[in-house]
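One such shown below:

_____
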Amino acid sequence: MSQPTTIELDAVILGGGIAGLWTLSELTRRGMAGVLIEARALGQGQTLWSQGIIHGGLKYSLSGLLTGSARAIREMPEVWRACLAGEREPDLSGAPVRAPHCHLWQTTDLRSRAGMIGARIGLRVAPVPLAPEERPTVLRDCPGVVARLDEQVIDPGAVLSALARPLSDRIILAPPDAVRFERDPLVVAVPGARFAPRRVILCAGRASADLRRAAGLAGDAMQVRPLRMVMLRAPAARLPELNAHCVDGNRTRVTITSVIDAGARRIWQIGGEIAERGAAIDPPALLSAARAELLAVLPSVDLSPCEWSWYQADRAERATPGAKRPEDIGVIEEGPFLTAWPTKLALAPRLAERLADLCGSPQAGPWTALPAGLHHPAVALPPWDEPREWTPDSAVAPG
C-alpha cells in the first residue's frame, strides 16, 4: 500500500489543550500552515482540570512583593477580557463567562489583613473592598474585608470549542502510539497522513515526556507537581454560587469556583492550599480535611445536602531547581523541536505569541486540505461530568 503524500507545513502541534489550540490560532492568523494532533479529546487533562480563573497575579503577591510570577501574569486579564468580548483575536465571544469577577475574603488572622493590603502592589487587577450589602450572600457574615477581584472565571471547555471551531479542518485525532517521527528530513506521520514541518511543537502536558522520548530528545526537561482537587455538589438551590479565594496571610487557603453540571446540580471546585496538601494524603482523609477547612472559613454553609468527590490534577511544567513552581511560561528549543508549557491557563496567549515568534515567517505556502478519512477530536468532559464515585456528606463528617 502506498504512503500518503507528504504535506509541507510550517508547524505540527502535538497536544490539544489551551496551549496547543491558542498556538494553532496564533500561527494561522500569521499566515502559517499548521496542524494540531490530539491523542484523546481536546482539553483532556490539565485544561479541563483547571478552575478557569484568569489570574492577574494577586495570589503570587500576597507577601506584599511583586514577584516574577505576578509580573508575568498581570497583563493576562486584559487580554482575555478583550478576546471574550470579541474585541481581539482570537474571538472567544461565543464562550460564556461563568463569572465576571471573583471575590476575596480573609480569615480573622491579623496576617491576613496584611496580605490583603500587600496584594495591591503593582497589579493591574487589585482587590476592591465591598460594603456589607455588596457582598455575596454566602460571605455576608465573614469578619473583616471582603473584596471584589476583577479576575474572570471562564468555562475551559467552551473556550476550547470557540478556539477549535474555525480551525476544525486543521485538528486531527491520532493515538499517541500512532505518532511517528522521522529525521533527515523531519516528518511527523500518523495513520493516513504525513507532514513535513519546519517546527514540531510539543505542548501535550504530561504526555510531552513520552513524545520527547519518541522524538529522541532528552528526558529531564519536565517536572510534575501533584495536586488533588476536591469537588462538592448539591442541588443548585441548596449550594450558593461562589467564585472566591480565602486568604490567610501570604497563602490562599481555599479557592472555590462554581459551575452547574449536566444534572443541573451546582458544583464547587475547591483548590488552593488544601489541594496541594491533599496530594500527600489518601482520598478519604483529603475529603475530611477539605470539609473541616470549608467549615473553618465558611461556617454558615450547610453541607448536609452535599456530596463529595476528588480528582487528580497533576501539573506538568518545565523543570526548575528544587521542583518549584515556574514563574512564567516554559519553552525549550532543540533544533526544529519546541517543547512548551503554559504553567497557568491564563498564560496561554503569552505562550502562543512566544511560540509563533520562534516559528518565524510563513514558508510552507498556501494551506493544503488534509486527506479524507482522518478523524477529529471532540472536547473532553469536565471532571464532574465524568463517571466517578461521590460520597454523601454524612459519610465524610466526623463521628
Summary: DSSP finds eleven helices and 21 strands in the chain. Confidence is low (pLDDT under 50) at residues 61-66. Residues 6-47+158-224+317-359 form a domain with the FAD/NAD(P)-binding domain fold (CATH 3.50.50.60).
